[in-house]
């Protein structure tokens, strides 16, 4: 299996698992929390059929990548991603991220620039800044995230269950856009993630991406559901058009956070049109 080494903790290398399929211009898919690269199955098939080279990878702490006790912050996540881009020598790439994955894209473009990147897609975006502060009144109270971490420390499996109920808006989608088996499949992936990483990623969600957002100089497509209960659209997606120089926001009425799965048809159509421009 292919890996890229991104660091070392004590006696062990820290490695990221990735998959690299197809040919043509590269598209890199960066997964959300607490999933892995396999969560893109509905988009991977579409992109391969359209003639793209498709790369997925597992963030440190998740999937088949190493699970160190360090590095669960966006500077490190983005350095990991930059190492992957460099090892594969990607150019003219399209970056597509979901949820946490939009953070790597935003910080990468803000910090490393767009020499290797042609455009980006942000699904259920985390930027620009989720934490409520005096100069960011649109954010979410810190107490919400403190409660998340307290629940993870007390009973991580219970937290993962609650998270996916919110991720999918199960009260509205179960039996319609979501099967019991699909919910369970996502849970089974999430529960295998690093316990340390699961806890520490909550702090990473509070990263201030405002400077990164303003520095992005490639076309961006943002797609978000209007009833996203994980990352409220008023705190995230709806703020981007006023901050990015070249962004289109598509709002999916009544859609939850879980767009790559529950709204794959709508998402794939929008991505296909964006890539064809």
Automatic annotation (TrEMBL):
Molecular function per GO: hydrolase activity; peroxidase activity
Residue span, AB hydrolase-1 domain: 26-263
InterPro entries according to UniProt: AB_hydrolase, AB_hydrolase_1, AB_hydrolase_fold, Epox_hydrolase-like
Domain of life per record: Bacteria
Pfam family, one: Abhydrolase_1
Keywords: Hydrolase, Oxidoreductase, Peroxidase
Family named by the database record: Belongs to the AB hydrolase superfamily. Bacterial non-heme haloperoxidase / perhydrolase family.
Protein name: Alpha/beta hydrolase
Organism, as annotated: Natronosporangium hydrolyticum
């Amino acid at each position: 299996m292919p890996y890229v080494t991104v660091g070392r903790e004590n006696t062990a290398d820290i490695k990221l698992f990735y998959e690299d399929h197809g040919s043509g211009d590269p598209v890199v898919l960066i997964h959300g929390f607490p999933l892995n690269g396999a969560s893109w199955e509905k988009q991977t098939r579409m992109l391969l059929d359209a003639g793209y080279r498709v790369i997925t990878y597992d963030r440190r702490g998740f999937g088949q990548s190493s699970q160190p006790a360090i590095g669960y912050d966006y500077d490190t996540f983005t350095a990991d991603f930059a190492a992957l881009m460099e090892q594969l020598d990607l150019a003219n790439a399209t970056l597509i991220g979901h949820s946490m994955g939009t953070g790597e894209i935003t910080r990468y473009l803000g910090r490393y620039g767009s020499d290797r990147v042609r455009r980006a897609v942000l699904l259920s975006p985390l930027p620009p800044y989720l934490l409520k502060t005096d100069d960011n009144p649109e954010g979410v109270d810190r107490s919400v995230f403190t409660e998340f971490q307290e629940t993870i420390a007390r009973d991580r499996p219970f937290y993962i269950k609650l998270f996916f109920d919110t991720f999918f808006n199960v009260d509205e989608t179960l039996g319609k856009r979501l099967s019991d088996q699909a919910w369970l499949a996502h849970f089974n992936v999430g529960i295998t993630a690093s316990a340390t990483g699961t806890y520490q990623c909550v702090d990473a969600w509070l990263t201030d991406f405002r400077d990164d957002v303003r520095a992005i100089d490639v076309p961006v497509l943002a797609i978000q559901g209007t009833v996203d209960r994980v990352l409220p659209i008023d705190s995230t997606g709806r703020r981007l058009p006023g901050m990015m120089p070249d962004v289109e926001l598509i709002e999916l009425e009544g859609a939850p956070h879980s767009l790559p799965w529950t709204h794959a048809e709508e998402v794939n159509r929008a991505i296909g049109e964006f890539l064809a421009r």
